[in-house]
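Notes from the 1:1 (GR / supervisor)

We went over the backlog. Supervisor wanted to see one worked example end to end before approving the batch request, so GR pasted a single chain during the call. The sequence is below; no edits were made to it. Supervisor asked that the structure be written out right there so they could see what the output format looks like.
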Amino acid sequence: MAEPRLRIGALSRRVGVSPELLRAWEQRYGLLAPVRSDGGFRLYSSMDEKRVRSMQRHLEAGVSAAQAAQLALAETAARPDDQLEPAGLAPLAGGLRAALDRFDESGANAVLDRLLARFTLETVLRDVVLVYLRELGERWEHGEASIAQEHFASNLLRGRLLGIARGWGSRSGPTTVLACAPGELHDLPLIVFGLVLARHGWVIAFLGPDTPVATIRDALPRVEPHLVVVSAAATQRLRAAKAELTGLARVVPLALAGAGASASLARSIGARLIDEDPVTAAERIAAGAHERG
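Structure output shown during the call:
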């Protein structure tokens, strides 16, 4: 069983639901199962967070609150921990790869639907999407996958992930600006990073691929971000913009991400380095912000 760890205010910020509504869901539907700390505070577990997120998905699909709560409770009772079903992930991941390789849009979307229904978004992103993208890049480098396959798979996954991202700019938590370096077109890892941050209550201002640094600076007065992340798969993209990025780092907290980022380059620019996979990095940043808050 997950160790209780969050007070209701922290849970509220992570899921984007007011404490009052969380209490109502707890009292009316039994959605949450907090325990009391020694000081008398209610503490909520990761399972409570999963139930809230599940209920939100059902509400967004038009289900009534009572039914959404029942579905959320049933789902988490059926699979209290994704780690109990490791064998179920690999066949679906293999099915997704096969469908994408043969340009089967409906088949790939069907597999993604099954993955998202059975596993948390973080699990699907970390253990399926990112693994597939890494393997696809390696196969392309060795001539085992075509440019057409790479474009088809990237565009399909990008469309699905941006569909999930709908509304990620309308929350009330810390704000981050996400952008690919000038000339950089590979934005899928950055989208994954943003999705996980959004799951923790962050507001995402996504500027996308090939973003001039001047464009990022233009957005700062309106967005007032807590963090700007600039990503690149190729080092030369970041080096070419080094002077502008150094200036950007003087006015806003800046992080460099992607295979093109390095500790020495980040240090010379005055930025922090994000050197973990996008899911882990987003979880760590969100946890750090929670601790500071």
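Supervisor's comment: The radius of gyration is 20 Å.
Batch request approved.
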